Amino acid sequence: MKKFFFLILLLTVIVSRPYACTNFLVGKDASATGAAYITYNADSYFLFGALYYRPAANYPKGAMMDIYDWDTGNYRGQIKQAEHTYSVVGNMNQYQVTIAETTFGGRPELVDTTAVLDYGSLMYIALQRSRTAREAIKVMASLVNEYGYGSEGESFSIGDPEEVWILEMIGKGPKNKGAVWVAERIPDDCVSAHANQARITTFPLDDPKNCLYAPDVISFARSKGYYNGTNKDFSFSDTYAPLDYVALRACEARVWSFFRKMDTTMNKYITYVKGETKERMPLWIKPSHKVTLHELMLDMRDRFEGTEFDITKGVGAGPFGSPLRCSPLVWTYNGKEYLHERPTATYQTGFTFVAEMRRWLPDPVGGILWFGVDDAACSEYVPMYCGINKVPECFSPTNGSLLKFSWTSAFWIFNWVSNMAYSKYCYMIQDINKEQSKWENKFTILTPAVDKAAAYLMETDTTAACDFLTEFSDDQAEAVTHAWKKLGEYLMVKYMDGNIKVEKDGKFVQNAAGIPPTIDRPGYPDDFKRQIIQANPDEFRVKTQAELDNRKQ
């Protein structure tokens, strides 16, 4: 009976694999300012987008910590509590250490259903216990060795102002504590990415400065019959997460889209993501230019525009370029499997961020979690300094829920706007982009001044500096949320019933009685008209007068 239930669980894992989340990583020397970056779109139909704050704390020796599954909220067990923990804002701690993830799944039989730690708990506990990225890797490895790892295979992005790493990990199966894993440091002048497919292939076995791994990562594979080659030829990804077509087209394609913007020579890998050629993309590349913060925000909003995968094109996009596709991602018709394109920016995002880690500033000032909620393409990134001591009410995890709408919750305001925009996307996204640009230009001016003032305060009064950063971050979050509510009201008025109200100098044109003298009726584009006619050649054709004159009696 136990074996039966375990098989059911594994089947559920395989069927429900979400192909969710995207991470981009930028080394400090690859960026325009010298900052290191990690980005994260946390994509899930079950994730309420909120910003959590965990204050630093001291605990008595022997204290225990309850573990609850990050995805389900179910209780998993207890572990020993650290005597001191660091403060954490979202996915960045007080030392600017940042951790993000994407799930690659891998071999389903390696999920340890008896383990205490899931991937979410592992991330946030490591943030509470680590002063550097390298220390976080060691903390995570130690924790899973002691308490087991109970999730599917994960790719973790782990960074601090000096180093950025990718750690890939998968369990060893039920009642088998520990995990097999490899961590590689991204060269400082390079960028990397992962998106629900393990990306570490072969790795150096004798370079602990740049590569760390579980001592049994290869021997365990041999014991399971997954691998029988030499150590130097061992590929983590090919062994523990073999590629299939969906992994290429729905996962690796997002990495490709990022890489091609970093270096146009990466365009050649389009044949790889289409399943036509076998040569894999490198784990990292050196960009042809210095990467900017604003550029990364745009990369997180990518919908494959300008490529043959553009999700705002084709019959699935409807007449107005909607990126919305009915789930599931993979679907069946007449016994054959098909899929929708899966871009970086997607409608089921709970929260999104660009973590900026700056080594030349005091930690509370140097770390900024540029945080947003919902679909990154329709969202706004707001600066949340890692030195803040509370989160804005609009981002609070107790302000609304997935089943409770709140007009003061950023998650619900942004979802309201984006879901409205999907109906006439090619028009409304232009208004959304204008609002995004306005705020991002404002933050470009404000944050350097805030950095300077906070750094000055840090010299004499750390508490005052953190209070100052908290007030600033809070004010900006609430202001942006209010602005998006006004944006939603504006979009409703402008595009009501599919027509477009005419504007002049930023105001709706109206007569003395407040009535618009005219409205735009753009109608359907010719391509969509063609689809209607092809499906119903004569159904909607207006008959000529001659045809009417020749009607039967």
Automatic annotation (TrEMBL):
Catalytic activity: an L-aminoacyl-L-amino acid + H2O = 2 an L-alpha-amino acid
Signal peptide: 1-20
Its EC number(s): 3.4.-.-
Listed transmembrane segments: none
Record keywords, A-Z: Dipeptidase, Hydrolase, Protease, Signal
MF GO annotations: cysteine-type exopeptidase activity; dipeptidase activity
GO process annotations (BP): proteolysis
Classification via InterPro entries: Peptidase_C69 (IPR005322)
Family: Belongs to the peptidase C69 family.
PANTHER family in alphabetical order: LD30995P, SECERNIN
Protein name, UniProt field: Dipeptidase
Lineage, highest ranks first: Bacteria, Pseudomonadati, Bacteroidota, Bacteroidia, Bacteroidales
